[in-house]
Amino acid sequence: MTLPKLSVFLGACAVLVTVLSDQCAAEPLMEKTDLFVAGQGGYRSYRIPSLVVTPNGSLLAFCEARQTGGDWGPIEILMRRSADGGKNWSEPKKMAEIEGPHRKNPAALAMKLAGPDAVTQNNPLLIADAKTGAVHLLFCHEYMRCFYRRSDDDGQTFSKSVEITAAFEPFRRHYDWKVLATGPGHGVQLKSGRLIVPVWLSTGTGGGAHRPSVVTTLYSDDHGAKWQCGDIVAGETDPLVNPSEAEAIELADGPVLLNMRSESKQNRRAIAVSPDGAANWTRPALDDELVEPICMASLCRLSKESPDGKNRILFANPANLERAGGKAEPGKSRDRKNLTVRLSYDEAQSWPVAKTLESGPSAYSDLAVGPDGTIYCLYERSSRIDNVFAPSLTLARFNLEWLTDGKDKLSATAAVR
């Protein structure tokens, strides 16, 4: 066979393989596994999920393990790891132990939110580094110190905790914070290699010592060796009230979008965009499609520049504006239930697909995508202990066919890696 004919033959084979692959769409998949169960392991509840798929395809699931339930009580950070797509998991492992002595945040003591001996480790945040293969972990201590760890062996071991609180000090020029928190959830790596960590800060003088608050970012241009602070993204600027927990994503044409929690009277999520994830943020605007019961949400890319021409972004939060036992008021918390996964085809401009993942009590979540396009969501749901509800963490494993009722599917090379 001559070279031109061989080239034509191979091209035809490639087309045939693509066609056959597209015709053999996967069946809808939905599986759920309880990873951290309230009342087990010596902890009353498990909250604040953080989930990442490593560059090698393993899953790392982090959370806050709470002995008493409140934000300021005795809390440890645990990790479980799966090397087979979420089918089997390692035993929980403590991930945020640091040398003492430990000092309670004065903001919490002033409000009598916890005793001086309650050690609080909080807000784990993960980033998978596609450039180096590493996994970056940031976590906080007493909502006033921040630490960094790194894994270079697919999450099997992590480096010693290194304090990076100094990176937050320049924020004080613009905002005299007493409380800091990363994420929670996961950060993002840009095409340039830059690591972006959403952050919220508070003076600690209002409700739960978490209000008032502003949103900003922390970033690293050297794979976690050094961290720097970005500009303040959002504060007490109409229509926002107490903006806090945010999720970041890089848009297809390069800018970084932040999707933020706030207590706006409209009860909607807030959006801001920056060319580099650090500075020159647009004025925050509300997304009318994304209802806000006042809760953390999750944001993740499913596909980009795929052969079928579809960019896909996933979003999850409790899609509910009802309030049991009382009248719903503008800007006030609503019941955290009806955890819903949404899908956008136009870079988070609209959300035409929405499907309930958990209809009952459900709250914080974190989304991730596997190398084969499988979607994972680690989320809070309520268990009952001594006739009182306490959060557990469940991992949902599903695919695009389930989310869209078979109306959409990923081609063989569409999933983002």
What's the shape? globular
Total beta-strand segments: 25
Task: Specify the structural class.
Answer: mainly beta
Portion in strands: 35-45%
Order of helices and strands: HEEEEEHEEEEEEEEEEEEEEEEEEEEH
Strand order of the largest sheet: 1-25-24-23-22-21-20
Instruction: Provide the low-confidence segments as ranges.
Output: 3-24
* Largest pleated sheet: 7 strands, antiparallel
* Chain-averaged pLDDT: 92
Distance between the termini: 37 Å
| Number of alpha- plus pi-helical segments | 3
Described by its quaternary structure, the protein is single chain
User: What share of residues is helical?
Assistant: under 10%
Rg, rounded, reads 21 Å
Please specify the SSE layout and strand pairing.
Blueprint: H1 3-23, E1 30-36, E2 45-53, E3 59-66, E4 75-82, E5 93-94, H2 106-110, E6 121-128, E7 135-141, E8 145-151, E9 162-163, E10 179-182, E11 185-186, E12 188-189, E13 195-202, E14 213-220, E15 228-229, E16 246-250, E17 256-260, E18 268-274, E19 285-291, E20 298-303, E21 312-318, E22 337-344, E23 353-369, E24 375-385, E25 388-398, H3 400-403
Parallel strand pairs: 6-11
Antiparallel strand pairs: 1-25, 2-3, 3-4, 4-5, 6-7, 7-8, 8-9, 10-13, 12-13, 13-14, 14-15, 16-17, 17-18, 18-19, 20-21, 21-22, 22-23, 23-24, 24-25
Question: What does this 3D model show about the protein?
Answer:
With 417 residues, this protein is mainly beta. The chain is built from three helices and 25 strands. The protein has a seven-stranded antiparallel β-sheet. Strands 9-8-7-6-11 form a five-stranded mixed β-sheet, with no helix packed on it. Strands 10, 12, 13, 14 and 15 form a five-stranded antiparallel β-sheet that branches. 7% of the residues lie in helices and 40% in strands.
